[in-house]
Design brief:
alpha/beta; 23% strand; Rossmann fold; 6 helices; globular
Length: 211
């Protein structure tokens, strides 16, 4: 690999200089700019919330719809609620490209998550993790790189101060308006965290049990 090739890598930090924009479009121009091109492919993204159902899944729906339209699979590992299929379909998600996996234990959950990320068939894998140590997260990051997939991990805000190999870490809070979502970038690829952002997510339909 030449120096020129190395300088084009999105995971190379170069001080105040951001890398060339790359990634899976979020569907929100302001967030795409903040993340230097969108959700990073071949990487983990941590979505941290105090409570479930504040709009975290609505934030991802535009990107998830694009993934299924490109004929890659979308996998949901241990979803806490049953997805509401009509709302997913109205958001543009191809239901025949959605997999639900319900492992029985935390160990099985991590195994299923690693295998789906590594498979190369899934454009994105969503998982709701209760606990994950640094070693486990590193294995997931390597699996996402191998499968060129995006691993969206929904976790509690209490882990915000813990180290993580995730390329992006966002802390979400409900804004004053019910259709808006506060986004704090704790970590992003190619630069320092930025000031909090508020997004209008009303156009992305809510799910039964999800938001």
């Amino acid at each position: 690999m030449t120096l020129e090739d190395l300088m084009q890598r999105a995971d190379l930090w170069r001080g105040g200089e951001a890398p060339p924009p790359s990634g899976l479009a979020c569907g929100y121009p302001g967030l795409d700019r903040l993340l230097n091109g969108g959700w990073p492919q071949g990487a983990l993204v941590e979505i941290l919330t105090e409570h479930r159902g504040i709009g975290e899944l609505r934030l991802l729906l535009p990107a998830l719809a694009g993934i299924t339209q490109s004929d890659r699979w979308l996998a949901l590992v241990a979803p806490p609620y049953i997805p509401y299929a009509p709302a997913l379909a109205r958001a543009g998600v191809r239901l025949e490209r959605v997999l639900q996996i319900h492992p029985g234990s935390q160990k099985d959950r991590l195994w299923a998550l690693e295998q789906t990320l590594r498979s190369g068939s899934c454009g994105a894998v969503l998982a709701w993790l209760q606990e994950a140590d640094a070693h486990g997260l590193r294995r997931l990051q390597l699996a996402a790189e191998a499968g060129d997939s995006v691993g969206f991990l929904f976790r509690h805000t209490r882990v915000a101060r813990q180290g993580s190999p995730a390329a992006v870490r966002l802390r979400l809070t409900p804004a004053r308006s019910g259709s808006r979502l506060g986004i704090e970038v704790l970590k992003r690829r190619g630069g320092w965290p930025r000031a909090p952002l508020e997004l209008e997510v009303e156009h992305a339909l809510a799910l039964s049990g999800f938001s």
